[in-house]
Amino acid sequence: MAGREDHELDGVTLLGNQGTSYLYDYTPSVLEAFDNKHQGRDYWVTFNCPEFTSLCPKTGQPDFATITIRYIPDVKMVESKSLKLYLFSFRNHGDFHEDCMNIIMDDLIRLMNPRYIEVQGVFTPRGGISIDPYCNWGRPETKYEQMAEFRLMRHEMQ
């Protein structure tokens, strides 16, 4: 099986770049995408980020989480190094857990327009309680919209 041609990675500038600068403020513009070579089939792509950090908008204290992103790509896919840098850019971003998960999902929808996507955060407890938001989206007027409704209605607590 052949690898990717250079022109298939047009727009991917961070992968292999040794001069990476880490952004400490929310920066969705760092996200990069590349073409899906398997557009004719449905398949899952899953990312796990066990070291996500954001800030409480009221206290300024850090919140830690494991973020799981699952999606079914269509034409575009998110490049993993850019996703890592993007998630890292939340380090000094002050927002509630639920907002962070929805922001991440919205930014990835804008970048890729996937068939289906879901984002979940499992946050470390603070004050004796944890918050684990889950959000999802399926392309409107397709089976993926129905899939999103099905998965949301059957989403179980962990």
From TrEMBL:
One of its GO terms (molecular function) is preQ1 synthase activity. It holds the Pfam family QueF. It catalyses: 7-aminomethyl-7-carbaguanine + 2 NADP(+) = 7-cyano-7-carbaguanine + 2 NADPH + 3 H(+). GO terms for cellular component: cytoplasm. It is an enzyme of class 1 (oxidoreductase). Its EC number is 1.7.1.13. Pathway: tRNA modification; tRNA-queuosine biosynthesis. InterPro entries: GTP-CH-I_C/QueF, NADPH_dep_7-cyano-7-deazaG_red, QueF, QueF_type1. The active site is at residues 56, 63. Substrate binds at residues 78-80, 97-98. GO terms for biological process: tRNA queuosine(34) biosynthetic process. Keywords: Cytoplasm, NADP, Oxidoreductase, Queuosine biosynthesis. It is found in: Cytoplasm. Catalyzes the NADPH-dependent reduction of 7-cyano-7-deazaguanine (preQ0) to 7-aminomethyl-7-deazaguanine (preQ1). Belongs to the GTP cyclohydrolase I family. QueF type 1 subfamily. This is NADPH-dependent 7-cyano-7-deazaguanine reductase. The gene is queF.
